[in-house]
Amino acid sequence: MEPLISMGVLALIGAAATIAGASEDLESDVGSQSNANSQVQLAPQMGYVHRIYNKAIAGEPVSNALMCTIGATGALVLIKHFGFSPLFALVIGSLIAAMVHGSYSVTAIMGREASQARFKQPIYLDLIRSHTPVIMAFAFLTTFSVMIVSYLMVYSLMHPFPFVLLCFLWGVVVGSVGSATGDVHLGAERQFQATEFGAGLNASQSGNIVRKGESGLRNGIDNLWFCSKFGGPMTGVSFGMVVFLGTWILVVFDPAEGNLEGWLSNILGLVIVIVLGIWNWHIEKETREKYGPYKEDKGEEVSA
Amino acid sequence: MIDIVGLIASNLIWILAIVIGGTLISISVHFIPVGGAPAAMAQATGIGTGTVMLAAGAGIAGIIAAGAVMAVNQDLWVVIGAAAVGAAVMLAATMIVATWIYAYGVGVMPVSAKVKYDPITKYRQDLYVSQGTEGHGIPTVAYVSATIGGLLGGLGAGLAYYALMKVSTLPVTNLNLVAVVSTFTIGFFFINSVIPSYNIVGTIEGFHDPKFKKWPKAAIASFLASIPLGILAVVAVGSLAAVGGL
Amino acid sequence: MTEKKMIPPNTLLAFGVVGGLVGVYLAYFLAPMNPIFVFFGALGAVCASVWGADVVRRVASYGLGTGVPSIGMLALGMGIIAVLFGLSLGLGPAGPLVAFITSCVIGAIIGIISKKVVGMTIPIMVSATTEIAGAGALLILGLSIVIAGSLDFGVVVTEVVTTGFIMMIYIAGGMAMLHPHNSNLGPDETQDRLLALSAEKAGIAVVLSGFASVAGMGAIAVTMLIGLFIWYIFWGKYYGFVKRDAYKVIDVGMLPTEEEMQ
Fold first, then answer.
1. Residue B172: inside a domain, yes or no?
2. Cβ neighbours of B246 in C, within 8 Å
3. Which end of chain B is more exposed for a tag (fewer CB within 10 A), N or C?
4. DSSP three-state, residue B242
5. Residue B61: its chain A contacts at CB < 8 A?
6. Contacts of C188 (CB under 8 A, 6+ apart)
């Protein structure tokens, strides 16, 4: 393909991936899923009964792979067997995926909270009714964006993998990126806003999540509002980078033109890894200087 | 009935490649700093997600890159290099953003609780661990370890993918072949990333973590498990061309 | 609290193996007469999923040292490799059985390796990985025949693998096995609720496979209706169990008061 058109497609893929990453993280913030959810799960046991959605479908990578694969299956069937136009089919596929995801979310919160009966955790039906549509909306957005990425890769950049398979793969990746980045903002900051800023969660505070909101009791939508300011967009940047950089190095130096280009693209990828590593080291140095240590160095005091 | 013995005998080298690939995947998982659930609360050093899924996320990014390259260039080193780099780039992009969130969203610096001095930067670690935690964020040593892990995992996945593609006499652009091989590679990758995660049990910080010394057990386990898996995969992929109707 | 009403593992093992194999074989032999009969495969897959969910429940209650999803991914990973191997041999009607047995063998090998080499201490590890691999294989076989309308290797490859629908079976089937345990985790978990949830999620997988079927409109309609029916029945059952087990199911409400918490 013309390099210029490839670049255009690539830009579109990167944009769609960024949206997918952001909506993936926000979806897991409303429902509370994956690692940060361990505290929501623990809270009733420590005596902190709450009104926060407990969406333990599975790990984020698996549940995102599920909805992307279901969406892709629906879309592909509509295109192949019923002759729908791709864009329309992708929308309907995402709708199917969002509906299935909603059903999974409802059974997850009901099951988890019914299994906590001895801690007197009630099941609030109004919570399920108000949060599930929000979860489904974000699931729709994530599925649609991941399918756009996969569709463009298969039919425009000529990736050889089947469309549904590629959706599955990007679903796993968006889930693992989301649970590695955005969830930290929910888990370490939003759920424990009552504890001091600038420290990890003290193990003795485990389960003591903030249960009261700006007005009334805090719920998942309050958490969404907070996380949409930093954690969500950052997850979007992260997944956008994963998809964009991974594909970009293969477009700049196309391995189809020969082994030299193949090697150059690999070296370019390594350079990116090293540059990001230096950046990571730089942040480490800077934060150590600015934030300072938590403890005094006892050993040096004695020697002085 | 197809000639199973003949297929296996003529593809011994590729079975060996698959087994090496599985072993590499298994070793790579030990390099990736996985903080699991505690890392999401800045309670443990590493990336805040589960072992299997983070390794799978990285390996899958590698498989996607390998698939894209294999379709246009069949040089072994270029293909597995692309897989290794694809996985490493995925981990790098995840880690840098995670560091932003730890540094600017939570207000903690990257620090390891398993060693007193970072073996690479020589920074003092223990004073910077906030109270009641096992470290937080991704310090330089964990970043380097994750990069090695990503490269190895991608290398393993790429090797398995390349070997299975070469087993069949069909052209590499045959869609049925690509689909079967990629499906196999993913199943194979999941199996070989679950085995080491049972070995690690919970969290690991990278090659400086005392738990890292357990890696030979998982490597042997994956080596042994990959032999039957490799044989089954070679037979199934090898018979693709024979069944006709493709 | 419902310990006495538990269904013993061997009953579920028999239910899963017999139900799964009978379902797959009924579909296998009846589909050439009328493609509508592929729905038997779907019923077999539901039996296998309920069995698999119970195995996940038993093995994960020991604590795997990593997330619950890992064992579901392991099960279906082994299942996919074994099923494609079994069908590729071109053994005709023996194919599904060979696939099932191969999967169990692979499961046993991985179980033995993780016990002897890795040193896992879970006493039922070997039997659990064997059973879960078998359940995974039956799930894949049952749903594959729904999509492809036959278990001929060439047809399965072109209709199930090359289209990528195998990944839908992988994840939707795997979720029907691992989601029930993951989402019922807690001290007051009960077996009947968990198994009802597995059947409900398997119903969703059946609807999706029916939708993707190439066995003709009749097969699509019948399978989807059966899937919806399974989903509806077991959703009702599950909700009933939730209401039975939960501390309280309330429409709108504040947190329990101090006195209530005592």
1. yes
2. 154, 157-158
3. N
4. coil
5. 173, 242, 246
6. A114, A115, A116, A117, A118, C1, C245
Contacts of C145 (CB under 8 A, 6+ apart): C24, C27, C28, C31, C38, C41, C151
**Residue ranges making up the domain that contains A184:** 3-234
pLDDT tens, residue by residue, B4-39: 888 888 889 999 999 999 999 999 999 999 888 888
- Residues A228, A272: one domain? no
Task: Work out the angle at residue C221's Cα, subtended by the Cα atoms of residues C215 and C222, and round it to the nearest 5 degrees.
Answer: 90
Locate the chain C residue with the closest alpha carbon to B234.
C85
User: d(Cα C161, Cα C81) in Å, to the nearest integer?
Assistant: 12
Q: Is the pLDDT of residue A20 over 80?
A: yes
| B172 within 8 A of B237, measured Cβ to Cβ | no
Neighbours of B178 (CB within 10 A): 24
- Touching C: B residues 162-191, CB under 8 Å: 175-176, 179-180, 183-184, 186-188, 190-191
**How many separate domains does chain C show?**
1
CB nearest to A39's CB, from B41, B60, B90: B41
Output the pLDDT for position C3.
52
Does residue B243 lie in a domain region? no
- pLDDT for C123 equals 86
Nearest CA in chain A to C192: A111
Selected for mutation to probe chain C from A113, A126, A127, A150 (highest C CB count within 10 Å) is: A113
Query: In one letter, which amino acid is A187?
Result: G
Specify the DSSP element, H or E, that contains A3: helix A3-31
Are A131 and A100 contained in the same domain?
A: yes
Model confidence at A67: pLDDT above 50: yes
DSSP state of C149: S
Chain B residues with CB inside 8 Å of A300's CB? Answer: none
Interface test with C, best of A116, A127, A151 (most C CBs within 10 A): A116
**pTM listed for this prediction:** 0.94
Q: A115 and C188 in contact by Cβ < 8 A?
A: yes
User: How many domains is chain A built from?
Assistant: 2
> What's the total number of domains in chain B?
1
Do the domain assignments include residue A300?
A: no
A114 and A29 assigned to the same domain: yes
In a domain, A26, yes or no: yes
What DSSP letter does each residue of B123-184 carry, written as one string? Answer: -B-GGGSPTTSBEES--HHHHHHHHHHHHHHHHHHHHHHHHHHHHSSS-TT-HHHHHHHHHH
Nearest residue of chain C to residue B4 (CA atoms): C89
Regarding whether A203 and A125 lie in a shared domain, the answer is: yes
Q: CA-to-CA distance for C96 and C137, rounded, in angstroms?
A: 9
Round to whole Å and give the CA distance between A289 and B1. 70
Cβ-nearest to A110 among C164, C172, C242:
C242
List chains touching C (3+ CB pairs under 8 A). A, B
pLDDT for B22 equals: 94
Asked whether the beta carbons of A180 and A61 are under 8 A apart, the reply is: no
Q: How far apart are CA A15 and CA A21, in angstroms?
A: 10
Give me the domain span that covers residue C199: 3-261
Chain A residues with CB inside 8 Å of C246's CB? Answer: 110, 113-114, 117, 122-123
Q: Which of A107, A20, A8 is nearest to A71 (CA)?
A: A20
- Is it the case that residue A191 has pLDDT exceeding 50? yes
Q: Are C184 and A114 inside 8 Å of each other by CB?
A: yes
Looking at residue B40, its pLDDT comes to 87
In a domain, A245, yes or no: no
pLDDT of residue A6: 84
Q: Residue B77 sits in which domain range?
A: 4-238
- Which residues of B fall within a CB distance of 8 Å from A204? 132
In angstroms, the CA B193 to CA B212 distance is 15
Q: Phi, psi (5° rounding) for residue A134?
A: -65, -45
Q: CB of A61 within 8 Å of any CB in chain B? A: yes
